[in-house]
Design brief:
3 domains; 501 residues; nine-stranded antiparallel sheet
């Protein structure tokens, strides 16, 4: 073995960072010919057959705990953590945590094989100016009793800067993303005929984050993981839930960046937010048309069954919806989305706001501040703003109600984020009533969006059909306003759940 390669491998025994990526198996074969890898290659690689079997009880005792037992072709069995513990900080691309030789399932039931992977495992040494890198590529097939499919995984290990830089160069040209699930979890899902379970869902749980910075890093990692899970489901044939949940995750992420801006103010965060804003537009276009077709569009068609004019309008709106989904898929399958995810990962890993904070003592102070003190100030500020804007809610114009809805949404995202710091019935009650207000105001907003969507239609959609939908929307908006007034009154008698520290 050449001395340079031996030195590189020795240095990689404990790399600073290892990131795992899912790679389209169809292009995995040409990965080693990518110019970035060719330029960095530090010697000959190694390749060997790879055989893995994953076991569990028939009842799935290990899977229920977020675990899998992996049996390689050679070597001892190891237990993998395929789902991160609830509340623990997590970053996309983190390989599963392994524990050698642990087979205790907490059950007397015997272990049975569920799925397997067979293929090749290649190791390629690379060099970079800061130090060596190690590339590991697994390509082959996932197999279960009744199904199989190709799979590929890439791991890059080394110093954080070169690892992220190489990942960006590869993702610019190749369909490379952090996997939404561990390979063992994908095997389990294949065996059961279902989609892999999400590592993260809903808002982040920041109850164990002691400082503002720790909470920011945890929230970014959590919401990136949610986006990765729902991105493949943003297809018209998958139903509207994928787009809805991904849009909510993206909005929560933007809300986090805004909430933590006093601590994380820097150019890299601003650039990341601009990228999120561009993707939000694509998601919004598809979501608005989903809401129309499943909401007012469906109700108008039901109210006037067989009317050709309404059918013509619904057909035109469906064509626009499918066009919006095509544009969204192009965005999600292109390099822009892949680089956006890497931008978010780099924020969590390299924390560029620390450099800005080194020249701004007040920013550094907020970064190190206790999270509950920071959360109290933010929630109190947003609560008082909401109360002020809605003080004369009965007399508010449609435009003012829209602004009130936005303020309610900002408070709700912050309240969901920080509620784990004050667990209990008070937080649940407050969030339930705030959600009811936001939902009622949201219906009024949906009717305004629906009117705007049909107003842009032209021939061959008859003007009569456009007018009918607009009239239907006006009637629904009136009912939504009444529900919003009732929800406002219910919210105003509830005490905020946060307390001073």
């Amino acid at each position: 073995m050449p001395a340079a390669v031996a030195a590189a491998e020795a240095a990689q025994e404990a790399p600073d960072l290892v990131l795992e990526f899912a790679l389209d198996p169809a292009v995995a074969a040409r990965l080693t010919r990518h110019p970035a890898i060719v330029a960095m290659r530090a010697g000959r690689g190694r390749s060997a057959a790879e055989e893995l079997i994953w076991l569990d009880t028939l009842e799935g005792a290990l899977a229920a705990e977020g675990l899998a037992l992996e049996a390689p072709r050679r070597g001892e069995r190891r237990r993998l953590r395929v789902l991160p513990p609830k509340g623990a900080a997590w970053l996309p691309g983190t390989p599963p945590e392994t524990t050698p030789g642990v087979e205790d399932t907490g059950s007397d039931a015997p272990l049975v094989p569920l799925a397997a992977f067979s293929g090749r495992h290649s190791v390629i040494p690379l060099s970079s100016e800061p130090g060596p890198l190690r590339l590991e590529l697994c390509t082959g097939k996932l197999r279960a009793v009744a199904d199989e499919r190709p799979a590929a995984r890439l791991r890059i290990g080394g110093a954080a800067g070169p690892v992220l830089s190489l990942a960006r160069r590869l993702a610019s040209d190749l369909p490379l993303l952090p996997p939404a699930a561990a390979l063992a979890e994908e095997g389990r899902a294949l065996a059961r005929g279902e989609i892999p379970r999400p590592r993260r869902r809903g808002p982040p749980d920041l109850g164990d984050a002691g400082t503002v910075e720790a909470a920011l890093v945890a929230a970014i990692g959590h919401l990136l993981e949610v986006m990765l899970h729902y991105a493949p489901l943003c297809r018209p044939e998958a139903g509207p839930e994928g787009v809805h949940q991904m849009r909510v995750a993206l909005r929560r992420l933007r809300s986090v960046l805004k909430a933590f801006r006093p601590a994380a103010r820097c150019a890299a965060v601003d650039a990341f937010d601009r990228g999120l804003q561009i993707l939000a537009k694509r998601l919004g276009e598809a979501r608005d048309l989903d809401v129309f077709q499943d909401g007012i569009g469906a109700r108008v068609a039901t109210a006037m069954p067989g009317d050709r004019r309404i059918a013509s309008l619904c057909k035109a709106m469906e064509a626009r919806r499918l066009s919006a989904y095509r544009a969204l898929r192009e965005a999600l399958e292109g390099p822009g989305f892949r680089l956006l995810i890497l931008d978010g990962m780099e924020l969590a890993l390299r924390r560029p706001w620390q450099e800005a904070a080194s020249e701004a003592p007040e920013q550094a102070t907020v970064l190190a501040e206790r999270l509950d003190a920071f959360a109290f100030r933010l929630l109190d500020k947003r609560w008082h703003r909401l109360c002020s804007e809605g003080e004369e809610i009965e007399a508010l114009s449609a435009e003012a109600l829209h602004e009130l809805r936005l303020s309610a949404k900002r408070l709700r995202y912050a309240a969901e984020l920080f509620a784990p710091l004050w667990p209990g019935k008070a937080a649940r009650r407050f969030l339930k009533r705030l959600s009811a207000l936001q939902d009622a105001l949201g219906i009024a907003n949906d009717t305004a969006v629906a009117r705007g969507l049909v107003a842009r239609l032209g021939p061959p959609v008859p003007p009569w059909a456009i007018g009918a939908v607009e009239g239907f929307a006006v009637a629904e908006a009136s009912g939504a306003r009444k529900r919003a007034l009732s929800a406002w009154k219910d919210l105003m008698v509830v005490e905020p759940f946060w307390s001073d520290v």
